[in-house]
Amino acid sequence: MRTCIALVVLTSVVAGCGGGLDLTRNDSAYEKPSNVAVFFTVDTSDGDPVAGLEADDFKIYEDERLVSPDESQQTIVNQEVAAEHYTLLLVDMSGSVTESDQVPMIEEAAQSFTSSLEQDHKVAVYAFDGSEDIHKITPFREGGGGIGRISGFRAKDPSTNLNGAIVQGTQELQAAMDESDAALRFGTLVVFTDGTDRAARVSSSEMRDAVDDSGFDIFAIGVGNEIDEDTLADIGRNGYVMVEDSSALDRAFEAISETIIGYTKRFYLLSYCSPARAGVHTVTIEANHTEASGDLSYEFDAEGFGPRCNPEKPPPFDTGKNVNRRLPTPERGTRIEIGTDESGAATVSGGASASGEASVD
């Protein structure tokens, strides 16, 4: 078994009427009999995720010669065989929330949020108030349940330990990912709050350092007049939503979930059977979408390759790597504007772009 984990990605963009595509490798591997697999993302040159591509939207070249799709049996393998996605929702349940009429709407929005993600993500929900520690509502799992406990939550300390909750949220998220046996692990933290930090248990600089060091995607949702936009932008590095009243909470949570799903669906695990039987070769994967295209290249060694390859076989990626989806992490997030389409579903504009090569820890 040979695993390619330190090869330089050569990303080129072919401009078309719709702009180019950026392909970024997260991992790649090859093994006998002749399996070659690469795990990568596809984004537009503007940083928007490209989801829904099929195997025939890609062309595979070896040493600049097109490999026949029929001969190579190229296929997109379910990414779950190589990667796990974790999302932690951190909900403000300080006194200003629990003593208001917002709780039923928060509970409903949180339930919808977790339901929309749980097909592809392990999702956990934690609450925070003014206490030193955050409070587990539902643990990480594939499948929902337990959100109803939000309505029964009562603040033990009516203050708001926002900074401390974010620091602990990144720690809980990391701890869950550390228990995973998946080859690649991705983390997302979503913070809902109706106010700024009042408890002063943890400084703003400590919170920002934790966000910087985590490498996670971090989004924020703020509701009401007490929260200020600068605070949300510092927290939600990958995008934040501000709503004036709780009646728009469902659309705010929907906007964030749609953004997260879009970034999840931009990952592709493309596997094929190489026709090479010896020597070192350069494989180039070219993606084509509407009138845009882009590619990435890397090398593999075909020594000992032969017949009877099964492209559906899970690739031999090394296990236990945390992946930072986008580098560099923005210092401040961009506001996500929400609206509704003709069907009443939330529409999204704004947010942080996906740019830079993924980093593997």
Structural class assignment: alpha+beta
Rg from alpha-carbon coordinates: 22 Å
CATH fold field value of the largest domain: Rossmann fold
Number of strands: 20
Overall domain count: 2
- The CATH class of the largest domain, by name, is Alpha Beta
The biggest beta sheet reads: 8 strands, mixed
Spatial shape: elongated
Q: Per CATH, which architecture of the largest domain?
A: 3-Layer(aba) Sandwich
H/E series: EEEEEEHEEHHEEHEHEHEHEEEEEEE
For the record, give the distance between the C-alpha atoms at the N and C termini, rounded to a whole number: 21 Å
* Mean pLDDT figure: 85
Q: What share of residues is helical?
A: 10-25%
Describe the structure.
Strand 3 (21-31) and strand 4 (35-44) form a beta hairpin. The protein folds into two domains: 2-81 and 265-307, Immunoglobulin-like (Sandwich), CATH 2.60.40; 84-259 and 328-360, 3-Layer(aba) Sandwich (Rossmann fold), CATH 3.40.50.410. Helix 4 runs parallel beside helix 5 (204-214). The chain contains seven helices and 20 strands. The protein has 361 residues and is of the alpha+beta class. It is elongated. Strands 8, 9, 10, 11, 12, 13, 17 and 20 form an eight-stranded mixed sheet that branches. A five-stranded antiparallel sheet has the order 1-3-4-14-7, with no helix packed on it. A five-stranded antiparallel sheet has the order 2-16-15-5-6, with no helix packed on it. The longest helix is centred in the middle third of the chain and has 17 residues, at 162-178. It has helices at residues 69-72, 95-98, 103-117, 162-178, 204-214, 229-235, 249-264; strands spanning 2-4, 10-14, 21-31, 35-44, 58-62, 65-66, 75-76, 83-92, 121-128, 135-141, 184-193, 217-223, 240-243, 267-273, 280-289, 292-301, 321-324, 336-340, 346-350, 359-360.
